[in-house]
Design goal:
Strand content: under 5%
Radius of gyration: 18 Å
Order of helices and strands: HHHHH
Structural class: mainly alpha
Largest sheet: none
Number of helices: 5
Length: about 110
């Protein structure tokens, strides 16, 4: 997946890919990826770790990269409909076991 990418694009994509593979989510900011991980992956793909700092976290490219990675792992972005289905499922399968609303609310907020 990184063959057609160059320099900071390659290392940025590699970081997103490995982070998603391990965390099932993307990092919220560039500095969330530990420096040791950046150095390790940069060494594997034969690039300098400093290139990672040049990867653009605000443009269309990172959006495209995230889409590629989601598709590779068989994920998609969640939707409002997904949240509604989750709420319905919780009401049907969890609420009848635990009627304490505050407990459910705390668990739900921790989940999202």
């Amino acid at each position: 997946m990184i063959e057609n990418k160059t320099e900071e694009t390659r290392i940025g994509f590699a970081m997103l890919l490995k982070f998603f593979q391990n965390e099932a989510r993307f990092p919220t900011h560039k500095s969330e990826v530990p420096k040791a991980v950046i150095a390790y992956i940069a060494k594997q793909i034969f690039f300098e770790p400093e290139l990672y700092a040049q990867y653009d976290w605000t443009g269309r490219l990172i959006t495209y990269h995230r889409t590629q990675i989601r598709e590779f792992f068989g994920f998609r972005e969640d939707t409002i409909e997904d949240a509604q289905k989750m709420a319905e499922w919780l009401c049907q399968h969890v609420l009848h076991h635990d009627h304490e609303f505050e407990h459910l609310r705390r668990n739900w907020l921790a989940y999202v």
